[in-house]
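ok so i was messing around last nite and threw this chain in just to see what happens. nothing serious, just curious
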Amino acid sequence: MTGSNAPLQLSASAPLWSPPVLPATYPDRHPRLTDAEKTLMEQYATAPAEFMTGGRARNALHQLARFDTPFMDIVKLTSHMDTTVVAARRHLFTYMVQTGLAFWAWPKEIWVEVIQAGPGRTHTSGTRFWMLLLAYLFCDVLYVGAFTAYGAMAEVIFGQSMVATEVDKVRTPLVEAGYAADQKEGGRLQWLTTLCMLVNRNPSIEAFSAQLLLTVHELLAAIPGAAQMTGRWALLRLQTSLCYLGILDEPVILDTSHEKAADLPARWQNDSTVDPARARLGERLLRSDPHLR
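result:
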């Protein structure tokens, strides 16, 4: 597991969007905790649930508003229950007490630990998901893991409609070319495409680049097990689509371990409207990986 905090250059033609939360709008972002703040956080995080309620909890959180307000602004972006909010807040406060730092001052290594320790690795709300959003929006840290809900993250950050539109742009030429379009494969492609959006810090597929694909390819290498293979499969599918759409000039992720080239999908072979140069590009893409059939 790892994190990426190196935004890539954005395209001037990319659609405009604004992050749902802007760190600069919070006035008091001093990185260090005072002794009083540490004490209040420790009390909140360790007190029995029935003790830290009502006016006692409101008083503590009022004094910790510079931390709790941005946290709650993240929570409000998703569906939630009071019990999960309290658990996530305790998780966040515990690590701030341990480090003596506000969460917006944490380096990537601490965020990775905080996220991995949070429950709900496949959930789209709750402790782990909110930590993912806090890391991304306040520290430019993207956690990379096999079960991370990148689709849900991208929908929160870029907007559900925009994400759906951009993923459909990628999927459509593949389906039209005859590639499988079942739910499982579509889910893999959506997971990988939204990961690319988050790495690029831009939802537009027109802003995707060869460097972005190479960066994501390196990030996938840090994921253990079968998820690395399925991620790479989806990356090659995405590359095929980007080349066909003219966003990439040629494939940049190749697999030279297989000498036998797969056949072009019949749709591309027999379609007279497909530019011969594009068809030759398709042949090179198919040679890059035997699974692109």
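not much to say yet. The first strand starts at residue 2 and ends at 4.
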